[in-house]
Amino acid sequence: MKDRPAPSAASAGAIAELPLPRWRPWRTLRLAVLVGLGFTLLFFAVTSTNASWSGLAGWARAFGASLLFALLIGFTIDLLFVAGRRWFGRRMATFKIWQRCLYFWGIPLLGLAIAIPVANTLTQHSGLHDGPQLRGTPLGAAVFFALVMGLFYGFFAIRGRQQRAERQALEARLKLLQGQIEPHFLFNTLANVVGLMETDTPRAKLMLESFVDYLRASLGGLRRADHTLGDELELVDAYLRVIRIRMDERLHYTIDVPEALHGFALPALTLQPLVENAVVHGLEPKIAGGSLRIVGRVDESRGARRLTLTVHDDGSGLRANAAQAASTGTGTGTGSGTALANIRERLQQHHGDAATLRIEPLAPGGVCATLTLPI
Fold first, then answer.
1. How far is Cα 107 from Cα 86, in angstroms, rounded to an integer?
2. CATH number for the domain including 242?
3. How far apart are CA 283 and CA 182, in angstroms?
4. Tens-place pLDDT, residues 12-68
5. Do the beta carbons of residue 363 and residue 356 sit within 8 Å?
6. At what angle do helices 9-17 and 138-199 cross, to 10 degrees?
7. Of the candidates 28, 117, 132, 130, which has an alpha carbon nearest to the alpha carbon of residue 80?
8. What is the pTM of this model?
9. Are residues 119 and 185 in the same domain?
10. How far apart are CA 282 and CA 285, in angstroms?
11. Together in a domain, 131 and 172
């Protein structure tokens, strides 16, 4: 197995804290309404003696102007962040502290510089400018600018803490999942090694070597923040070599993933649980065994590049092992067990709604698990 240098703390922190480049207009709209209402109340507190506040029309014009500013600023900055994240991509993980500060402060400043003149022009042509104003004075403009920047600073500070807490909880559940998987696999493998030592020493040695490779790949993968598809395939291959010795001629497997895809980032223990489900709940219960195929491809349809990983097996199928899968909570039979829920949660954490996991039955028997991730 190739040794890789551990990523720096700054790099790992950057990966964990950067917001996902997703377009969420309803969230921005809700925030704009709240900000517009807040600034309306602020303007009233500062300019309450203005005669415009005496009627409902004055309040409506003040709120309309504040909402217009909030909408233009919010959507402009939101779009700039989405464009910036898509432009820089994975290079953002290598940003230094000053580069990250420049990025997260520079984009709101650029958004304000673009949106405020446009909003001023629109308010003047729409009649909203006739209402009570605070932004027209130098002091008001400075207060408005400081408040907007403070709101963005607070938003990113809270979002960063939330993402760190979610990441820590997710990693804790990942380690718990590994702790649930490995003891069972460990005891079964060691029992097989002991049994083979008396009857077939070379096979016992081969199984033990494969198991050591599995442990090395498994433990090493959790310690690295830059886990890749190649790391996961190394873990899967070591696991299947152990199982193949145990099942003998009842198991046949192929891994069809081009070498060029091995460097793509992939959350740890994403593919391996799908392979284990296929073996434990599909192939092992079948007297004749069966075959398993792992395929990786890049799909460039519909204007987006996506990595598609599929795990095919011709085992017992969903119906035959549904009861067993439901009792263990980890099988492909339900499609919603503990292991599958963990995978879906990690995909959501890393890629949002752009990543999916689909479990489908195959005819005449077997299961196909499909992972789709954005590149």
1. 14
2. 3.30.565.10
3. 19
4. 333 334 444 456 778 788 878 887 887 788 777 777 777 778 788 888 888 888 888
5. no
6. 110
7. 28
8. 0.53
9. no
10. 6
11. no
